[in-house]
Amino acid sequence: MKSDLITSLYVFMLAGFIGFEVIRRVSPLLHTPLMSLTNALDAIAVVGAILLAGEHKSTLSTVLGTIAIVAATSNVVGGFFITDRMLKMFKSSSKPKS
Amino acid sequence: MTPFLSTDLIIEITYLVATALFILSLKWMSSPATARHGVWAGEIGMVLAIAGTLLNRGIVDYKWVAIALVLGTIIGVPLGKVQMTAVPQRTALSHAFGALCVTLVGTAEFYLRAPDVPKFMMSVLSMEVILGSLTFTGSLMAAGKLQEILPQRPITYKGQNIVNLGMLAASVGVAAYLVIHPDHIYLFPVIVIVPLLFGVLMIIPIGGADMPTVISLLNSYAGLSAAAMGFVLDSKLLIVAGALDGASGLILSVNMSKAMNRSFSNVLFGAFGQEQVAAKAGEEARPVRSATPEEAAGILEVASKVVIVPGYGMAVAQAQHKVRELYDNLTKRGVDVKFGIHPVAGRMPGHMNVLLAEADIPYDKLLDMDEINGDFPQTDVALIIGANDVTNPAARTDASSPIYGMPILDVDKARTVMVIKRSMGAGFAGIDNPLYYMDKTLMLFGDAKSFVGSIVRELSGGGSHG
């Protein structure tokens, strides 16, 4: 249990550093789609909700889990959909890029 | 025992691959050329992780899971199809949904585990639930303000900050007590309900112009609460996704705060603009020069370099398509037209870029503040459409101005400045703009969409006999 916790903290720390380095390089041009994309990725919380609703440990956990799946799934579907729609609109004026 | 283990291993591998794909997804966002690969990588990672989860032997009943997945998809599709002008409120709404999911899972986990919750588990669970709840109502409030269901003006009252901070302190205090005494189950609702209320009160004093920072901050909170949920469920995938989202929101909020020369605490507790409006009310009206669409078209026609500066007013007037016509017309005449975009123009980071890209303006003509500022001294005309405070030279020169020190677009260095504006009313921050009284400035009074339309008509008419 204890080593698991430390491992998780390491994972959190490393992911935080990767996040800073990767996101720093995103052009301000794309900050709106960046936010909708990270929001869609964040909705991976749906996996926790699926286990909660599916394991059926108590009525409360099933009900809360089911609502949580609905909320997260709408973010997954809506988030990826709108991000792609936005990115499709970004076109360069010099068509064949060297 | 062996087949059971292998299913577990398969699930773990799908999570591992999904984690890698999520990181690649954000990496590919660095350039518009590769950004769409990023979306695909994210989608594949998501599908893999969900499929892997569904293999889990612990799931005894798929009925509710299936119904919820279908229902979520039905809600998600229209949320993916909203107008580009409505993207800020849609984003706020999706932060609310993400936070709702995290809060509900955290609540359910607590009641499943109580009263034997280890100290560390209870700490992260409290963090998950507190951050999740305040992000949920805070984001709903932000969405309401952006959709203009709620008043956009900041609402302040005496002792507001003390009330807000008191509520936050109370939730943290009760959470700390629960960490030590997790058997006091009846206290748990406090760390859900009080932060829910705090989320509402936190957004009440925040005005429309501060929304880019607030949305970014809520984005960061949503990410951090998801990471906390990852600790509770011991899911590395969730920890990574939450940390990436948290980092992204944090970077954006730091950018936005810098672009307004303000600190986080100032945005959250400052309630900008209130006294300023009162202070400037007594000042008498100074003369300005105004011009007709015909005169404006005449000046644009002979310019060789034009920089258009769009702001939230362009979005409100839905003028971006008319602006594209103007861009096309001037470009055809050989005029060099670029767009200068301030980081906090609009209601969320990058808002203007999305609107202009939607209107088919090539993204290499959309320049960031730092990229364009050096160009203004060589610019013939700076055309400002629905932007105010981000062009206010008082930020550079007047130490008594509330926006003093804020980085601005140096439009006043252009040879001629044109400002399309409904009236002489002050901007969202309620601050007077000396730019409007300069000799080189022409005020073009009217609705942004119809005024730009009239300029385009003049230019097309003039072209036929010129």
Which terms summarize this structure?
heterodimer; A: 98 residues; mainly alpha; 0% strand; B: 466 residues; alpha/beta; Rossmann fold; 6 strands
Give the arrangement of secondary structure elements.
The complex is a heterodimer of chains A (98) and B (466).
Chain A: H1 2-24, H2 31-42, H3 46-55, H4 59-89
Chain B: H1 2-27, H2 35-54, H3 63-80, H4 87-113, H5 119-146, H6 160-180, H7 190-203, H8 211-233, H9 236-259, H10 264-270, H11 274-280, H12 293-302, E1 305-310, H13 312-316, H14 320-332, E2 336-341, H15 351-358, E3 366-368, H16 369-372, E4 381-385, H17 394-397, E5 416-421, E6 441-445, H18 448-464
Parallel strand pairs in B: 1-2, 1-4, 2-3, 4-5, 5-6
How would you sum up this structure, described in words?
The complex is a heterodimer of chains A (98) and B (466). With 98 residues, chain A is an all-alpha fold. Chain A has one domain. Helix content of chain A is 78%, strand content 0%. In chain A, helix 2 runs antiparallel to helix 4. Chain A is flat and about 60 Å long. Chain B has two domains: 191 residues, no CATH class; 172 residues, Rossmann fold (3-Layer(aba) Sandwich). Classes of the chains: A mainly alpha (98), B alpha/beta (466).
- Compute the number of helices of chain B: 18
Strand content of chain B: 5-15%
Q: Terminal Cα separation of chain A, in Å?
A: 54 Å
Beta-strand share of residues of chain A = under 5%
- Specify the overall morphology of chain A: flat
Q: Structural class of the secondary elements of chain B?
A: alpha/beta
The side-by-side strand order for the widest beta sheet of chain B comes to 3-2-1-4-5-6
Integer tally of domains of chain B = 2
- Let me know the average pLDDT of chain A: 90
Q: Any idea what the shape of chain B is?
A: globular
The tally of strands of chain B reads: 6
Major beta-sheet overview of chain A: none
- State the helical fraction of chain B: 55-70%
Instruction: Report mean pLDDT of chain B, rounded to a whole number.
Output: 88
In the predicted model, the low-confidence regions of chain A spanning at least 5 consecutive residues are none
In DSSP terms, counting alpha (H) and pi (I) runs of 4 or more, how many helices of chain A? Answer: 4
- Biggest sheet record of chain B: 6 strands, parallel
What radius of gyration of chain A results from the CA coordinates?
A: 19 Å
- In oligomeric terms, what are we looking at? heterodimer
